[in-house]
Amino acid sequence: MTMTKLDFERKYRTKQNTETCEACRFWLADQNESTNAGSCRRHPPSLVQIAPPHAFCQSVFPTTVRYGWCGEYQSIVVVKPVAKKPALRRKPKKKTK
C-alpha cells in the first residue's frame, strides 16, 4: 500500500514534530514539486563512484524527504537576542543657594 501525500503529512507533520528537513535552514527542496525529496546541505557533498563502464566520481548531497529529521536541525528563522539598552542615568541636580 502506498501512502498518499496527505496521509504522509498527517502521520509525520504534528505539532510535536516541527523540526523537520522542510523547516531546516540547510535543506533545499528538489525543483520537481511532485516529490517530497530534497537535499541536505549541512555538510559538504560526498564523492560517489558511478558504476563501470563509466568509472568516474560525482559529488552528491544526501537526499532526504521533506518530513524527515536529524539531530542537527537549525531553524530557517534565526532569532537574534535583543541587546539591552543601558539605563538612562539622570544627572543629580545642583543645589542652589
Descriptive notes:
- The chain is mainly beta and 97 residues long.
- It has a domain at 5-65.
- The chain has one helix at residues 5-12, and strands spanning 27-29, 37-40, 46-49, 57-60, 63-65.
- It is elongated.
- It starts with a helix and ends in a 32-residue tail after the last strand.
- The model has no long low-confidence stretch (mean pLDDT 79).
The count of DSSP E runs of length 2 or more, i.e. the number of strands, is 5
Low-pLDDT segments? none
Number of helices: 1
How much of the sequence lies in strands comes to: 15-25%
Features:
97 residues, mainly beta, three-stranded antiparallel beta sheet, two-stranded antiparallel sheet
Helix-strand blueprint:
Elements: H1 5-12, E1 27-29, E2 37-40, E3 46-49, E4 57-60, E5 63-65
Antiparallel strand pairs: 1-2, 2-5, 3-4
Offer a quick outline of the entry:
By secondary structure, the chain is mostly beta strands.
